[in-house]
Amino acid sequence: MLNLSNFSSFFVANWKLNGNMAFINDYFDALNTKSQNCVVVCPPSIYIDKIKKNQKNIFAGAQDVSKFISGAFTGELSAEMLNDMDVKFCLVGHSERRQNFNETNDNIKLKIGNLINNNIIPILCIGESLEEKQNNKTTEVLTKQIKEGIPKISNNENTIIAYEPIWAIGTGLTPTINEIDQIHIKIKKIDDSLNNYKILYGGSVKSSNSKAINEIDSVDGCLIGGASLKIEEFNNIIS
Length: 239
Ligand code: PEP
Known about the structure:
The structure is a single chain. The chain has a single domain (4-238), classed as TIM Barrel. It has an 8-stranded parallel barrel with strand order 1-2-3-4-5-6-7-8, surrounded by 5 helices. The radius of gyration is 17 Å and the shape is globular. 36% of the residues lie in helices and 15% in strands. Helix 5 packs across helix 7 (138-149) and helix 9 (207-214) packs parallel to helix 10. Strand 1 (10-14), helix 1 and strand 2 form a beta-alpha-beta unit. It has 10 helices and 8 strands. The protein starts with 9 loop residues before the first strand and ends with a helix. 41% of the residues are buried. It has helices at residues 21-30, 48-52, 79-84, 95-100, 105-117, 130-134, 138-149, 177-189, 207-214, 231-238, and strands spanning 10-14, 38-42, 59-62, 89-92, 121-126, 160-163, 198-202, 221-224. By secondary structure, it is α/β, with parallel strands linked by helices. Phosphoenolpyruvate binds at residues 14, 164, 169-170, 202-205, 223-227.
């Protein structure tokens, strides 16, 4: 497993259901990874090998993993298989999976355990909907997602949390700098054990706001969706 303390910041590109061979070739021709930060690209899983073979200084990540270890589960990919492909990070519990694929906290807990057991660092995505925010339920929602989703085996050396307000994903909206800071501080206080976890922010990060977000003390990096598909934007964000 990678030593997270070797890096000061983490930039994780979530390509979702986007990209193809030609896109990947152009992307890696243009990608500029001279920074000392940890840069992770999570393509659709079928392209992980292609990402891994590029000559740039990045890590391959997956967007999801099976909660099962092996067996008759058509279409699934296990944590062991991802480890075989030298995957170092895996998103778990992204809001799109919670909303569109009935991802539950119980499943998330199993997935995180499987990943850690296979030396892959899970990036647990948590976040509230707009309605939950408007009803002052943010802390309650995040607490439930953390308490029910993080297994005992997790610690600050093997698990990362990404705070991604659902209303900020793909919308161009973001919380204020102060709001992000306050929520990250609150997350660390949900349980004593969370105090030293790396916490990333995700939701409409782009080159024009990434510097200010990354300068927040309680932010250890960013999870980037749409802007990670535009190589100039992504180069600016990670530089
Ligand atoms: C995401 O889906 O994880 C994400 C952060 O998306 P975007 O950057 O497009 O808001």
